[in-house]
Amino acid sequence: QVQLVESGGGLVQAGGSLRLSCAASGRTVSNNVMAWFRQARGKEREFVAAVSKSGVRTYYTDSVKGRFTISRDNAKNTVNLQMNSLKPEDTAVYYCNALSEYGSRVGLFDAWGQGTQVTVSS
Fold this sequence. Notes:
By secondary structure, the protein is an all-beta fold.
């Protein structure tokens, strides 16, 4: 069973940047489309961004387009999320997971990691 560990979160002022990382262990995720999700307090978890198996193709939720960039390193079994021009509304716990197919926005693995907290102050 795959284990996912997210890191890189923190407290940042509006307009700042953070880089999140997701390390997978237990098995390779190079054959999976991978994605980032986030959950703000009191809200449901939502899709943020996804990257194809090769890392060539990506797609994003509208609210982060042009500000966030998802990437992957299959040799290291990791997925990253570069977040620029952060806004207070980006405050949430961020999680990674696989997707069943490219274009999906639903997590594949039942077991989610602990997530990493991102807090953006105004």
